[in-house]
Amino acid sequence: MSHPTPVGLIGFGYWGPNLARNFHAIPECDLAAICEANAHRLAKARALYRATRFYDNVEALLNSDIEAVAIATPARSHYPLARRALLANKHVFVEKPLAMSVAEAEELVELAEARGRVLMVGHVFEYNPAVRHIKTLLDKGVIGQPYYFYSTRVNLGRIQSDINALWSIAPHDISILIYLLGRMPVTVSARGARFLNGKVEDVVFLILTFPNGVLAHIHASWLDPSKVRRLTVVGSKKMIIYDDLAAEGKVKVYDKGVTRFTDPQYGEYQYRLHTGDIAIPKLPLLEPLRLETEDFIRAIQSGRAPLADGRNGLRVVRVLEAAQQSLEKEGALLSLGE
Ligand SMILES: NC(=O)c1ccc[n+]([C@@H]2O[C@H](COP(=O)([O-])OP(=O)(O)OC[C@H]3O[C@@H](n4cnc5c(N)ncnc54)[C@H](O)[C@@H]3O)[C@@H](O)[C@H]2O)c1
Question: Is the CB of 38 under 6 A from ligand 1?
């Protein structure tokens, strides 16, 4: 086994502690340093990880002997921090979204490739056993032809003031859809509204079309009475509901469908409804974040690209940027290249 990879974490706010806990638990990884600008949060990190070094500025962290950084700071700082880290020859894991524009994301991907560094983005749902199971069902044709998807990711809280609900919440749903279908959407249209501070959309409704007429809808909001994390998949043979908050039975596969046939007596189309069993697959009890952080370390040590690599992050940013343009044009239907 190669030596444990020394990783430095930047940002120990709400999400950073989850990354720290996972990097710390991986035997092939050494959570060597934590960098946090806020003294109170840095003290919290210090109390938890005694063998780790601590910094209050990124320059000092990058000058230390870490090989990789994980960035868990607000979205607008992802690009400048990732760029600095790549220029310092570090492997980089960035929380989602990879960057705030296609130009920024492309630059990071090119920089990482030119320097032979791993660039990975925190599309954690691609590591979620439930999402992976749904992908195997789709790939095996179990649900038949996929017709449409809709995803609801809403809650009261985690209100952001520097980015809207599209950039904050929807990266997860976009990455899930691209992962499940293995394709980029071809069109995007988004509407949203700013209620709380007049600067950023608190709620966004996003419609994507994929090749073969597959339709998808994403509802993202931090201004909603209840917390919902739910994806519905409707196919020609079966339908799936994935409820991420369900204690058990997160994925339910409904043997339901509709067949159209011609009635020989009347010569007209008729519809036959089919309602069979509901299957609840047994899913492995694995923490998606653990699988994600392990993939980063494995990629560094093996030289094999991680699943959520920089190009994957770039694809999601392409959709986000087009959706943002549509949002600014009150839902204009915009095309995306394949
Ligand atoms: N994968 C997920 O499900 C998930 C969930 C929540 C947040 N996130 C992502 O995690 C990232 C952080 O979100 P959060 O909610 O933890 O934000 P946060 O504001 O709670 O924490 C960010 C922390 O970074 C620190 N920081 C900012 N700039 C810094 C710098 N230059 N040097 C050192 N420290 C710096 C801040 O002091 C703060 O403590 C975001 O990109 C967000 O999208 C991902």
Answer: yes
Q: State how beta strands 203-210 and 187-193 pair.
A: antiparallel
Collapse the DSSP code of 85 into the 3-class scheme (helix H, G, I; strand E, B; otherwise coil) and give the result.
Answer: helix
117 and 185 in a single domain? The answer is: no
In a domain, 313, yes or no: no
Q: Domain for residue 249, yes or no? A: yes
Q: What is the Å distance from ligand 1's center to 264 Cα?
A: 63
- Residue 141 and residue 247 in one domain: yes
Cα separation, 310 vs 329, in Å, equals: 29
Question: What number does the ligand 1 atom closest to the CA of 57 have?
Answer: 32
Say if residue 166 is in the same domain as residue 278. Answer: yes
Judge contact between 73 and 10, C-beta under 8 A: yes
Ranges of residues in the chain with a pLDDT under 50 are none
- Looking at the structure, do residues 299 and 235 belong to the same domain, yes or no? no
> Does 277 lie in the same domain as 293?
no
Same domain, 175 and 142: yes
Residues 201 and 55 in one domain: no
Phi-psi region of 43 (alpha: psi -120 to 50; beta: other; left: phi over 0): alpha
pLDDT for residue 237: 95
Number of domains in the chain: 2
Look up the domain containing 251 and give its range. 126-284+318-335
Rounded to a whole number of angstroms, the distance between the first and last alpha carbons of the chain is 40
For the four alpha carbons of 74, 42, 66 and 14, in that order, the dihedral sign comes to negative
- With respect to residue 266, please indicate whether it lies within any of the assigned structural domains: yes
Model pLDDT for residues 184-203, shown as the tens digit of each residue:
999 999 999 999 999 999 99
Indicate the top mutation candidate among 63, 73, 169 to test ligand 1's pocket, ranked by most ligand atoms within 8 A of CB.
73
Give pLDDT tens digits for 26-81. 999 999 999 999 999 999 999 999 889 999 999 999 999 999 999 999 999 999 99
Run of H or E including 328 = helix 310-328
Residue 16 Cβ contacting ligand 1 at under 6 Å: yes
